[in-house]
Amino acid sequence: MxxxxxxxxxxxxxxxxxxxxxxxxxxxxxxVFIDLDHLFGLRDYVRANGVTAVFDLxxxxxxxxxxxxxxxxxxxxxxxxxxxxxxxLAVPLLFWGTHxxxxxxxxxxxxxxxxxxxxxxxxxxxxLVTIRYARCIATGSASTLAEYLRFEIGGMKAWTRPRMx
Length: 165
Fold this sequence. Notes:
The chain is mostly helical. It has helices at 3-17, 21-31, 37-49, 57-60, 77-87, 91-110, 115-138, 145-160. α1 (3-17) runs antiparallel to α2, α1 (3-17) runs parallel beside α7 (115-138) and α5 packs antiparallel against α6. It starts with a helix and ends in a 5-residue tail after the last helix.
């Protein structure tokens, strides 16, 4: 799936699980940022297919390309499993597994950049906004779109502020 889909689904799961800031960071690392391995595969991809292949959308979204590392295979459970056990959190394993299942569903069922993936992204985003809006209403701060947006911007600013210990 595209990175935006992974991000929205991970944010939705973070909201559903009520994860704190630290656990949410771990969730995003294993649910979204493992896709950074595609950048490491770029050199090999260019070497095998040429520089012009990077600009060919049909070639670049080929699921059989040189884009994925060990973290995109079931063997990575030997890395993620011990991290989960050592940290006493199921979060890394859960979000990595969700990422892998989404990629498998894309290749086996949905197709790369398909309309079905777009519908899935839209539904996940709608679910995320619905949950966030309900949380905003519960705090008593939303009755208009502008107030909801202020609520979200305030939440984003809170994530960047250093925490007092």
